[in-house]
Design a protein that fits this description.
- It is found in: Membrane.
- Pfam families: HAMP, HATPase_c, HisKA.
- Keywords: Kinase, Membrane, Phosphoprotein, Transferase, Transmembrane, Transmembrane helix, Two-component regulatory system.
- A hairpin with an 8-residue loop joins β5 and β6.
- This protein is of the alpha+beta class.
- Helices cover 53% and strands 19% of the residues.
- The chain is rod-shaped and about 160 Å long.
- α5 packs antiparallel against α6 and α6 runs parallel beside α11.
- The strands form 4 sheets. Strands 4-3-7-6-5 form a 5-stranded antiparallel beta sheet.
- Among the domains are: 176 residues, PAS domain (Beta-Lactamase), CATH 3.30.450.20; 153 residues, Heat Shock Protein 90 (2-Layer Sandwich), CATH 3.30.565.
- The chain is built from 11 helices and 14 strands.
Length: 474
Amino acid sequence: MPLGIRIFAVYFLFVGLAGWFVLGTVMDEIRPGVRQSTEETLVDTANLLAEILRDPVIAGNLAQSHLPEVLKAYGRRRPEASIWGYTKSQVNHRIYVTDASGTVLLDSSGLAVGRDYSRWNDVYLTLRGDYGARSTREDPNNPDSSVMYVAAPIRNGEQIIGVVSVAKPNQTLQPYIERSQHRLIWQGAGLVVLGLLVGALLSWWLSRALGKLTDYAQAASAGHRVKPPQLPSGELGQLAVAVEQMRSELEGRDYVERYVHTLTHELKSPLAAIRGAAELLDSDMPTEQHQRFVGNIQREAERLQQLSERLLHLAQVEQRQGLEERVAIPLAPLVEELIEAQRVRISAAQLHVEQELAPALQLYGERFLLRQALANLLDNALDFTPDGGLIRVKAECCGEWVKVCLFNRGEAIPEYALGRLTERFYSLPRPGGGRKSTGLGLNFVEEVAELHGGTLSIRNVSGGVEVSLNLPAA
């Protein structure tokens, strides 16, 4: 399972459990919380009524006072109050008063006057001097029919002479409880979803950053030329820098070791030839042989110089991870410049050079490297084109790329060699002498093409060989 999915799964589990626990706890607390708040209000109301009713109860004329009419008028009131979107159109309090024995003296509902309520907890506990309250179902089979009763003592000095109870049906609180629960569910679910989206975004970002690092490490391990990923500052950015530094150090060590081996191997042959010729020159020999051995020394010394220079150029290109400049380079003038530089050699071999280049074609990259790459291709073509032969340079624009093709009329490349021509130090004998080159030219061209994001291909065509170089167009 990908790391990002695992991180999100853990985050999802944590957020889900936390959301479920918090929502469940808060949902369970809404109903008792609302009822506790209502009970606190009933306590205040009952104590206020106890003070109002004290004098009529002491005088014993509660039933003959104006209070029964007041309670009836209270029951007929229509508040039409809008509370949290709900309209309260009637009052819900029931108020009854008992004497010191628990007998009902006054009842706002008019149902219980004269009854003995001394066994109800609100009256019983209050007459004993305790806090009296109860919750009783009007319908024993319906839990939503419960009514909350809160009582307060009516005192004459320190003596309890009666009890006033205020009742409120719990069902009247249900709309507010349900509304709070619904809002909590929607808002809690929204927060959970938002948290999961944030977690998904964080997991995606982290997975993407780690994916970039992984792709970079794999590409670098495979020997591809890649740039380190651009990551934000922080631990991931520091990790990318550390990986790049480690890669550079390891590549540098491997590169030096590989080049020491290859350079040592390639230097053996010309050095042995120079040494053998030098030893022979110490002895007496005809002038013709003397000149031949001197010529051998000069040729091998020239070969050593070419080998050193091309190795340096190739090393510089292989070690680079990017271009030092990117400029538009007109192709036709560049090719003309390279042909003019080889004009003496072209004339001596009586070669015919054709150019099929549109004046508007432009390459996009580093001029020095592209010039060196095209010069190597032209040099190769000159080596393998017989006297009086043909060299043709043409180019065409293919979208974002320019395809440069160099054709030379000559013998076809053997099939066994086609796949090895860009290998370092691999070279075919030149026509008319069998001399080999350093074997670094085409390898250099391929490195330059890859550095520009392009490709190099070599193939046999009718009448000769064609080399194609795909490079970015300006």
